[in-house]
Write a structure and sequence with these properties.
Length: 274
Amino acid sequence: MKKFSNTENLILEYHDGWLDIWLNRIEIRNALTESLIKDLLNVFNSVHNDREVRGITIRGKENVFCAGADLKAMKRISESGSSAKKIALEMSMVFGNLFRVINQAPQIIVSVTEGFALAGGFGLASSSDFIVTMPDTRFALTETRIGLTPSQISPYVINRLGYKNARKMMLLGANINGMKAKEIGLADYLANDTDNLKEILDGIKNQVFNCSPNAIAITKKVFNINNYFDKEKAADLFSDCIVSDDGREGFNSFFEKRKPKWIPDKKKKNNSEE
């Protein structure tokens, strides 16, 4: 039986051709820190050519999938002076590489979204082949609400939702639950409870095991033939946001638990109208 080494960020469980990857940084709601991303990339790269691993499930410990990127790290980048743009560009490329590696993995990748799938966590799920969710899971692309752009995850979101729904989610930072996610095509399966979740996952695994691992790997390449995406340009756009005045204001307002300055003061507006 294969053995995989656990890390500070991940717990890995392998049984009969299927690898479960558990995000295990619950104290930060499984945020995508630099070290967690590095661990994920190491795991995916290590099994890329291993056809004994037929499928991979990504989920979070303590019923929390992923609350997005490490905003504390991003805030530090935005305040790093003349080097901020370069650091932000490199960081965004790392995110883009993670989503690409997951999306182009030759195995079937299933994200089990419980609790939160926000921003980068939304992108992590969207880059998978299938998303299984619970009714009360919260999905949102919150980037524009804190002065950023979801540029690196945009192709995966658009592929899942189409332009109409992707535009609403990406531009307005719309917040939806798991039931709505299933309704609009973001989630592939909706589990009503833990027993139903197990049934769904077992069903997916059985279907995968009925298919040729080589055929699945080649078929996944078919999806990427015309799927050109400029990660460098996406990184440039994202890094511009981090170093902008709005980006710094977004981080400050988030950590100071206040509204950013671009949200109109309703009290002042009401007083002026009187």
